[in-house]
Amino acid sequence: MQQGSMSFIFLLVLLCQCGVKAVILTTCEGDTAQLSCDFTSHVIACESDTARLQCDQGRIQVLSANYGRRNSATCSSGKPANQISNVQCNQGSSLSVLANRCDGRKYCSISASNIIFGDPCVGTYKYLDVSYICIPSGAVLYKRTSCEGGTFRINCNKRFIKVLSANYGRTNRATCSTGKPANQISNVQCTQNSSLSVLAAQCDGKQACSISTSNTVFGNPCVGTYKYLNAFYICYPNNHFIKVSAANYGRTNHATCSSGRPAGQISNVQCSQNSSLSVLATQCNGKQVCSIPATNTVFGDPCVGTYKYLNVSYTCGPNPVSLA
User: Fold this and answer.
1) Range 7-37+241-318 classified under CATH 1.10.260.40
2) Single pTM value for the model
3) Nearest CA-CA partner of 135 in 56, 32, 214, 219
4) Would you give the distance in Å from CA 131 to the centre of its chain?
5) Which residues lie closer than 8 Å to 87 by C-beta, 6 or more apart?
């Protein structure tokens, strides 16, 4: 698989809307195209740069933020080892600072600097890592907690569920603590990384769902600790589904997916597979997430000997078929 071969070009940068989200996706031959309709956005700004959050339609709601450093790779170019070695650098107030500045706005910009956030680790070159959602018009944000042994239930009535964040574990001593001995609530660093994917798989796109708050479902991230499931989700009025508007498996320029390829494999720029749109539409239309290999096996070979790529334009919008 070619390193960095999949590139995403968002026509409307960080666009979050309740209507249509337009995306162009290019995937090199042999890789897999991933089409997805989602509300969430992720921004990273290196220290001294500016983070920009934008919702062309809808309003910003910051989900998580950290000014510090959690890995040695991000914002590391040209930095000496001693400035990127501390990967336990967290600024606890990051979320509240971002929320106060940005929540409820369409556009927000904030400097990733010690002046704004304070310096949680002197001598470390930091970055601001932010996840946020653009809440569409008519959508409502909820937070729900279910104690271990109970059942986590969501009912959006005739609206649709989108889980934004989730953790099965324990991050404070107060929640779900009544009657519990100290040793069962003392570990407040208990997180289960798969919590979001488990809950989303069960609930996303549905009008109601329920799931057992148990080790059986989520696994046990901290044996002996009494845990709880904590989640943020929205109920939104129109489900968002993929609609492919254009597609071509072939080659129409010399530059795309050309790294390391000999001239003979990228010289034919009149290579088009007419059935590309129908193949993509059959595979992906009406879904929220879709994966399809960019291969001759799936699309046929419109130009033998040419290294091809799949170029797709699609939108995310309400399902044309009523789900009521």
Assistant:
1) no
2) 0.55
3) 56
4) 8
5) 69, 70, 71, 72
